[in-house]
Amino acid sequence: MHLNIPLSTTSKHKTFISFHHADDEKRHKFEKEFSQQFDGFVSRSVQDGDIDPNKKTDDIRRIIREKFIKDATVTVVLIGQGTWRRKHVDWEIASSIRNTKNNPRTGLIGILLPSYSASGSSLKKTVDGRKFYNPHTIPPRLYDNVECGFAKIYSWPRSGDELRQWIHDAYLKRDDKTCLPTNRRDSFASNRSEFQKQWQP
C-alpha cells in the first residue's frame, strides 16, 4: 500500500548560503522566512580580504571548505542579477562540491531571487517550472553542475515544505556515485566587470 508522507517529515540539513553581498537583505529574508526548514545555517560567506586570491586554487578551496563551509551538507546559491560575476560565489561553489577526507562534498542547488529576471534567446525553465533563467546569467560553475545532473535550479519556494524537499533531494544527490559533480572550470581570479551582461561559453 502506498502512503503519502507529508513533506514536513523530511529531514532537515545544515545549509550553507552562498550569495552576492548586494543581495544581503534578500538573504536575511530567506533565512528568516524559511529558518524552520534547516538544521542550522552555516552563513559565514567569504568576503573581500578573507582569503589571498594569489593562493593556489586547491589552497583556496581547502580554506573555504574548512573555515567557512565546514559541517554543511547542502549549499544553496541565491541567484540575483549580478551573482554570477562574483569570485567568492564561484569559490564557494567550487569548495562545496570538493570531496575531501575531513569535509565531504555538499549537495548543491540554486534558487532564483524574486528580483531575478531573464532575457535572451536560449532561456531554460527552473525545475519547478515557474520561472525562466538565462544559463549565462547564473554562476558558471553552478550551471556546469546543472548540465551534468548534479545540481538543480529552482524559483523562489512557495512553502517551507517545498524548500525542505529540494534541500533533502540535494543532500541525497551528493552521495550518488552515478552522478558526480564537475569542478574542472578555472576559478575566478577576480570579479567580472559590472558592464559584462553575461558570461561566454
Give the class from helix and strand content and strand pairing: alpha/beta
Termini gap: 48 Å
Content of β-strand: 5-15%
Number of strands: 7
Name the CATH class: Alpha Beta
Q: Roughly how much helix do the residues carry, as a percent range? A: 25-40%
Q: Identify the overall geometry.
A: globular
Provide the CATH architecture: 3-Layer(aba) Sandwich
Q: Radius of gyration, Cα only, in angstroms?
A: 16 Å
Describe it for me?
The protein has 201 residues and is an alpha/beta fold. The protein has a single domain, classed as Rossmann fold, CATH 3.40.50. The chain is 27% helix and 15% strand. The chain has five helices and seven strands, in the order βαβαβαβββαβα. The protein has a five-stranded parallel beta sheet, with helices on both faces. Strand 3 (74-79), helix 3 (87-96) and strand 4 form a beta-alpha-beta unit. Helix 2 (57-68) crosses helix 3 (87-96). The protein is globular. Mean pLDDT is 88; it is low at 1-7.
